[in-house]
Design goal:
Layout: E1 3-12, E2 15-24, E3 39-43, H1 51-61, E4 66-70, H2 90-106, H3 109-125, E5 134-139, H4 141-152, E6 157-163, H5 172-175, E7 181-187, H6 193-205, E8 210-215, H7 232-249, H8 251-258
Parallel strand pairs: 3-4, 3-5, 5-6, 6-7, 7-8
Antiparallel strand pairs: 1-2, 2-4
Helix pairs in contact: 3-4
């Protein structure tokens, strides 16, 4: 499926956030509205928008979605906000994290929620996006932001997926607000079985329709092929969980393309 990509700028309360968008080309002879696709707001990991994130967005778009990836740290400049090596291995990781962590610490919950409002308004206003609910996904710190976004927009966000993410930091009050269908894919190096049981207990108590599991043999960052944490089996498992979740939650929007 041919994919279009764009660099866009999202108006927010604090300026304009640059963003990457990927979505399928409209096909010739489509019925009215047939070139529109369910919207997915994708939050990057702390390393931000870079070739591997663009590739993940393009691959997801190839399954029939409009994928919007905002620059989380736009207040500090356009992406890439920090200089990144092509491969983030053990030697480079500490230096990169030393630059990233202050940006993450400044990205308060208040900023997260203000930005989420702006991102969702922008996403749903795009002419290529189908009407109806959307999905949010995220990686690492982006998974926590996706979780906060879903909690703040019940009824609007129909699917939430987060991978190797500190989702428990959202707190039980936020989890209780989620009405989306949820999948959390945890790195084995991030979460003990006991901690997983406690998280899933909180999700059950909140009545959240969810799957939440540890991906065997993985460490934090396992989906990102430009890091030494990358695990090909973990990435495949991520797609095996993410695609059915989105298809089930956003089926009406997907149906728009094929009638």
């Amino acid at each position: 499926m041919p994919i279009q990509t764009k660099t866009l700028h999202i108006p927010t309360a604090d300026g304009r956030a640059d963003a990457f968008a990927a979505f399928p080309d409209a096909f010739p002879g489509a019925f009215p509205g047939g070139g529109r696709h369910p919207g997915v707001l994708m939050y990057a990991d702390g390393f931000g928008i870079r070739p591997v994130l663009r590739e993940v967005a393009r691959e997801l778009a190839g399954h029939g979605y409009y994928v919007l990836v905002p620059n989380l740290f736009y207040r500090h400049g356009t992406a890439p906000v920090i200089e990144l090596p092509e491969y983030i291995g053990e030697e480079a990781r500490s230096g990169v994290l030393a630059q990233v962590m202050p940006l993450i610490q400044e990205h308060t919950t208040e900023r997260v929620l203000s930005d989420a409002d702006a991102y969702l308004r922008f996403l749903t206003a795009q002419p290529e996006v189908a009407p109806g609910p959307v999905a949010v996904t995220g990686y690492c710190i982006g998974g926590l932001l996706a979780t906060r976004t879903a909690a703040a927009h019940p009824g609007h966000v129909a699917a939430l997926a987060a991978f190797h993410a500190p989702v428990g930091a959202a707190g039980p009050e936020a989890l209780a607000e989620i009405t989306a269908q949820v999948h959390f894919g945890h790195a084995e190096g991030d979460l003990t079985p006991e901690a997983l049981r406690e998280l899933n207990k909180a999700l059950d108590a909140a009545g959240v329709d969810h799957t939440s599991e540890i991906y065997p043999g993985t460490v934090h960052g396992f989906t990102m092929s430009d890091t030494d944490a990358f695990d090909p089996a973990g990435l495949r498992r991520h797609w095996d969980r993410l695609l059915p979740l989105l298809k089930g939650a956003l089926a009406d929007g997907l149906g728009l393309q094929h009638r």
